[in-house]
Amino acid sequence: MKKLFVLFSLFAFLPFTLRAQEGQLIEQKVVSVPDSVLTRTSRINPAYREALDRTEVREITYLSDGLKVKGFLVTPRKSGKYPCIIYNRGGNRDYGAITLSNQVPILARLASWGYVVVASQYRGNGGSEGREDFGGRDVQDVLNLIPLLAGLPQADASRIGMYGWSRGGMMTYLALTKTDKIRGAIIGAAPVDLVQYLERRPAMEKYVFAPLIPNYEANRTQELKARSAAYWPEQLCKTTPILLLQGSADWRTNPEDALTMANKLYQSRHPFRLVFFEGGDHGVGEHRDEMYRMAKDWLDAYVRDRKSLPNLEPHGE
Fold it and tell me: Which of the 8 DSSP states describes residue 99?
């Protein structure tokens, strides 16, 4: 009887132990950005090179759902306690993966504003354990960066923002249905209706959706809608103001998705701002410096400075 009690106690304790480990940082390594990358980033935009010089880059491994997941942590070189940004990468599998030459310069640019920036490769990618499921359980890999930040001495985890582009924007929407700890979010060029998206880009079914999304063949429409914010805007945390950024000449994500989402957010009385860049491509390359200024202003206001939410009720003269 005593053995049975001990065994029961162990099983009862196990879920608590696993939860306690979520987001635990188990490995970190400072990495140097190669001179070739520094030269290339200087040529593309000197701001990236300056940001890399002012920040420190680490490769990290952390726990999520018991899996060892890889990512990056970029911090200002100057010591201090900083607000935070969770950066959600776009793409899938190796496409869009975070590397020293791809994405890390962006992380450094965000960190150079005075933020601790952390990003996940998502499970199954970049040497991570597990299997990517394109907006399913891998959303936990984003959410588990919150307790990771709470354990960093240089991070002020009471001030966290979230930044996601393309698929990363989809991950941001999904995360905002599950946490109220994000003080401000930036979402760029994110698909919000994968059912319609598939009509425009049918090849995505064969190469992305079917291979990655569990139960896709049996529950196609249900699984796509579960990843499409246009179908559940009321579930988003209303204390997280969202800055929507979209280029009007984007061929990857339908620019009308941003207009659709703006209308959905307006109807659900969610604080947001939409910036529609004329002639902007998927990455808003034609307006990049302006886009970064807007992103910085948004994060500084709502995350760094804890600006109060706007009054959405009709008012004024």
Answer: B
Strands (E), 23-167: 25-31, 55-64, 67-76, 82-88, 116-120, 155-165
Per-residue pLDDT band for 44 (boundaries 50, 70, 90) equals confident
pLDDT digits (tens, 9 = 90+) for 215-248: 999 999 999 999 999 999 999 999 999 999 999 9
CB atoms within 10 A of CB 271: 17
Whether the Cβ atoms of residue 298 and residue 304 lie closer than 8 Å to each other: no
pLDDT tens per residue across span 73-121: 999 999 999 999 999 999 999 999 999 999 999 999 999 999 999 999 9
Q: How far apart are CA 110 and CA 52, in angstroms?
A: 10
Report the number of distinct structural domains present in the chain.
Answer: 1
Characterise 256 by phi-psi region: left (phi > 0), alpha (psi -120 to 50), beta (else).
Answer: alpha
Give the residue numbers spanning the domain of 278: 2-304
What CATH number is attached to the domain comprising 207? 3.40.50.1820
Tokens describing residue 14: 């196990």
| Assigned token pair, 232 | 């559940």
* Position 246 in a domain: yes
Distance of CA 107 to the CA centre of its chain: 11
Strands 242-247 and 184-188: parallel
Give how far the C-alpha of residue 119 lies from the chain's centroid of Cα atoms, to the nearest Å. 7
- Scanning the chain, the segments in alpha helix (DSSP H) are 2-21, 35-44, 46-53, 104-111, 139-143, 145-150, 167-175, 194-200, 203-204, 210-212, 220-226, 256-267, 288-299
Q: What is the mean pLDDT of residues 49-74?
A: 98
Q: Is residue 317 part of a domain?
A: no
Whether residue 203 is contained in a domain is answered as yes
For residue 316, being part of any structural domain is answered with: no
